[in-house]
Amino acid sequence: MKRRGRTLASALLALVCGVSLPLAAYGAVPYAQIEGTGSTWSELIVQQWIADVNANGMKVVYTGGGSTKGRKDFANNSVDFAISEIPYQGTDEQGQADTSQGRQYAYLPIVAGGTAFTYQLKIGKQQVKNLRLSGETIAKIFTNQITNWNDPAIAKDNNGRKLPSLPIIPVVRSDGSGTTAQFTTWMDKQYPSIWRAYFGRSGLTSYYPKKSGSRMVSQAGSDQVMNTIKGFSGNGMIGYVEYSYAINADYPVVKVKNTAGYFVEPTQYNTAVALTQAKINMDTTSQLYLTQNLDSVYTHKDPRAYPISSYSYMLLPVGASDQRMSTAKRQTLADFMYYSLCTGQTKAGAYGYSSLPLNLVQAGFDQIAKLKAADPAVELTDRDVKSCNNPTFDGKNLKRNLLAEKAPKPPECDKEGAGPCGSETGTGEPATADTAAGAGDAPAAEAPAAEVDPVTGQDVPVAESGAVPVSGGTQDVYASPDTLSADRAGDRRPFGWLVVLELLALVLLPGLLAAGLRRRMAARGAAR
Predict the structure, then answer these.
(1) For residue 218, what is the enclosing H or E element?
(2) Inter-residue contact 39 to 79 (CB < 8 Å)
(3) Which of 147-156, 196-205, 234-243, 510-519 bottoms out in mean pLDDT, i.e. has the lowest?
(4) Rounded CA gap, 335 and 45, in Å?
């Protein structure tokens, strides 16, 4: 009885002092360490989530290595979970099997982001920080058709701005990479004549093809791509990474021209706008449930949209007889992902990612529920997506996408034929009329007085803004907000039991502490 009282007292004290304890302290399912591998595109935010939940007694170990490695490790039962930007392909581009080898799984979207093009380019000793490139120019750079920074196509993208005669050195991934797969998918869809002539066939690849005799450099992992470009000998280099790596390195990224003719970078806002057009597989009977089709993202006509935006996915083990899983591991995985889908999303923007929209968070909750279906001992009570602390939505108006609503229109100096703007890139902050002007550049346009419709990109009178229309026809389901499929009465917070314990703390803690003090004083008196 004394031990139970001490445990409760410690738990209540922790709550009052703002310290989180593991669920095991409350007599719930204990935790066990879980291990995963895969995407480096997602790794920076995943490692932050891991650090956050460590204080709650959850031990999560994650090692990058690329999406291909993650899928293979999961299939070989050498990890508890994996993260990948693309689903299993059945057969990969090298003719090898790319399946789970019978291991049961579900795709769980975890975060959104933009594939960015970071570079080192100096005029004299001054680093260029506001480079603009069209998609066609990028495709030609990474297929060895444009090989010098003074190419007329690059000058045209930058409104006639002349760049030095300097060889272009593309830096690509040497490992099986989801970032490579997303980049090559975009080229295959948008610039097939350029990409397929270089690749030799249609489709994506996770292994970037490097031609002999080219200046192209291959590196394993997003971090090594980033380190190579910003290195001492990196002048002239350009490579592709998730936007977060450039922000972390305080390094510039290319502003990519979108369908509306504006050059934009992959801030959390521009990514959120673009992904309102992502078509999501909503067939719950399909193994591809929740996977993405980004064709409409690439061509979104909103001037704020960043065209190479996408989602990353966890491979969640859902088999009842999974040889690696136990109740404790499933509990750890469930609570880790609840944190990641809710509070963890609040950190996405600062790290160069973009938070998930409401309908994908709701679907993520449904996927996590499969852990309990596999093992009824897993505890999943008091989870309500409406109360998620997620920047894309609020519980009062579920049809709003707050990130897309807040996304500012790009300044006019970022439009094709104008500028370029003088503002730096790679800061994580959107370019606006207030920040666009720089020395020697065209003056910035004034900020629009109206709010902006997050789907159409058109000005909307402030009085009419609010609910966001869902794009597409009746057959297509897009990754824009949607209403919840269920609303459980009395379940208004993601971890409702905390409220109860907080109230108990206020009532019981003083007495418990006083009793403990009396016992210690009595023990000291007896010792004397």
Answers:
(1) strand 217-219
(2) no
(3) 510-519
(4) 16
DSSP assignments along 434-468, one per residue: HHH--TTSPPPPPPPSSEE-TTT--EE-GGG--SP
Q: State the residue for tokens 């080229």.
A: 187
Beta strand 451-452 pairing with 122-123: unpaired
User: What b/e readout covers 264-281, taking b as 16+ CB neighbours within 10 angstroms?
Assistant: bbbbbbbbbbbbbbbbbb
SS3 43: helix
Average confidence (pLDDT) over 451-459: 42
Token reading at 5: 């009282």
Contacts of 454 (CB under 8 A, 6+ apart): 272, 273, 276, 302, 401, 404, 405, 407, 468, 480
Q: Angle at Cα 344 formed by Cα 296 and Cα 256, nearest 5°?
A: 35
Short-list 436, 468, 434, CA closest to 451? 468
Residue 417 tokens read as 């034929």
Mean pLDDT of the chain: 82
Selection from 78, 77, 81, 90 nearest residue 49 by Cα: 81
- Cα separation, 225 vs 243, in Å, equals 12
Lowest average pLDDT, out of 253-262, 303-312, 387-396, goes to 387-396
Q: Comparing C-alpha atoms, which of 138, 116, 110 is closest to residue 46?
A: 110
Q: CA 420 to CA 80: how far, in whole Å?
A: 48
Length of the chain: 528
Pair 217, 171: CB distance under 8 Å: yes
Global pTM exceeds 0.85:
no
Per the CB < 8 A criterion, the answer to whether 255 and 390 are in contact is no
- Alpha-carbon gap, residue 308 to 135, rounded angstroms: 10
Q: Name the region of 77 (left: φ>0; alpha: ψ -120 to 50; beta: rest).
A: left
Q: Classify 145 as helix, strand or coil.
A: coil
Question: What pLDDT, in 10s, does the model give residues 349-366?
Answer: 999 999 998 889 999 999
Which residues lie across from 113 on neighbouring strands? 310
The C-alpha atoms of residue 297 and residue 103 are separated, in whole angstroms, by: 32
Does residue 424 contact residue 252 with C-beta atoms inside 8 Å?
yes
Give the residue carrying structure tokens 């960015």.
116
User: What are residue 523's phi and psi, to 5 degrees?
Assistant: -65, -40
Ranges assigned E (strand) in 6-158: 34-38, 60-65, 81-84, 90-91, 97-98, 105-119, 122-123, 126-127, 132-133
User: What secondary structure letter does DSSP report for 167?
Assistant: B
Residue (of 422, 325, 236, 244) closest to 35 by Cα position: 325
CA gyration radius for the chain? 25
* 6 pLDDT higher than 90: no
Nearest to 282 by CA among 512, 521, 470, 519: 470
Name the nearest CA neighbour of 314 among 21, 133, 49, 90: 49
3-state secondary structure 259-274: CCCEEECCCHHHHHHH
